[in-house]
Amino acid sequence: MAVYLRGSHWHYDFSLRGQRFRGSCGDGCKTKTHAKQIESKKRGDASVRAITCTKAPVLSAFAKGFKESIIEAHEAGHKALNTKNRYLYGLKLLAKTPIWNRPIDQITREDAQRLSFPGHASGNNALKALRRMLHLAEERGLILRAPKIKLFEDHQREDLVEPWLEELILEHATEPLRAVVIIMLDSFMRPFEVVGMKWEDVLWDKGLIRIPKSKTPKGKRHVGMTGRMCFELRLLSSDSGSLVGWVFPSTGGKSGRKSKCGHTLPSSLDKMWRTMKVKVLRSMAQRYPDKRWPEGLVLYSCRHTGATNYSEAVGQNQYKVQKALGHADPRTTGRYVHMKVDSGAVMDTVNAKKGPKLVKAS
Predict the structure, then answer these.
(1) What digits encode the pLDDT tens for the residues 96-129?
(2) Which of 214, 239, 348, 353 has the most CB atoms around it within 10 Å of its CB?
(3) pLDDT of residue 295
(4) Four-point Cα dihedral 21, 26, 28, 29, nearest 10
(5) Under CATH, domain 163-252+260-334 is a member of which superfamily?
(6) pTM surpassing 0.70?
(7) CB within 8 Å of 189: residues ≥ 6 apart
(8) φ and ψ at 170, to 5 degrees?
(9) What are the structural domain ranges in the chain?
């Protein structure tokens, strides 16, 4: 297929050296003959560019240099730790796909769309890494044009920890998960921010916790401590016997292998959460037989729950909520605040102020 009519506009579509070229011929193109002329010119331009291109490497070879550059950029302070980790995790996922040993000039948008990953969030890490590498290859003249790669649709978390469920979770959660859940509910910290706490970051005299490292520069902030947060932290300090080092040090668990970073990992919290969930489900069957565990409820939902409760408490003050969550964009904060639908009750109040109720005509 060279040229074709889509609606009232002519389009061109051809391939050259495994690279696909397609697009609109423009509003001024009214006939098939004119469309073929435009297609011929586009093909010629692509051929000229192809002459200047060297032989493209396979994705695995190009990814090796990309990985080194990401690590160097992080060490130089140009990339945040979270950005580096997302790229590196994305490369690990790409290494398990069919395109890993394919020349980068033969990777198309359709190839990327056919890839499958464990989840949408992890899949987007892989696609972002692939997209970045292909754009770098285009800049270096290794490919003619980087294909447009569409990311997976991000599913927003909607489920919150209701009061009755919070009671059961805290009842069956063991340490350190219990303390982590309370801190996330009351201070809206991210899981990796909680487990990355050091005792020097707990400002007892001011009732604050300092977060020196976070996802973004705005994430470096202070959060307040509630009474039950202080109680849990006091218990942890008495168990450790020292106020030096990590608040949640790695114990190694059943395997005895401690984490390289020295503190508990978020992945370990997820395992504890799944174990706790089993116990809660058994308790729910006896105490709340009419209740159901929300399908999308995970540990991170505690951050959403705390943000929603805080927003209602401060009168939906967007700036305060954004500051507490450590967001740079207020639109991101809007995804964390799940307001209750009370339009019916509000409108009943409005209608009552208008006057007498309307009577249905007979």
Answers:
(1) 999 999 999 889 889 998 998 887 878 899 999 9
(2) 214
(3) 87
(4) 40
(5) Intergrase catalytic core (1.10.443.10)
(6) no
(7) 183, 209, 211, 223, 303
(8) -70, -25
(9) 3-52, 59-139, 163-252+260-334
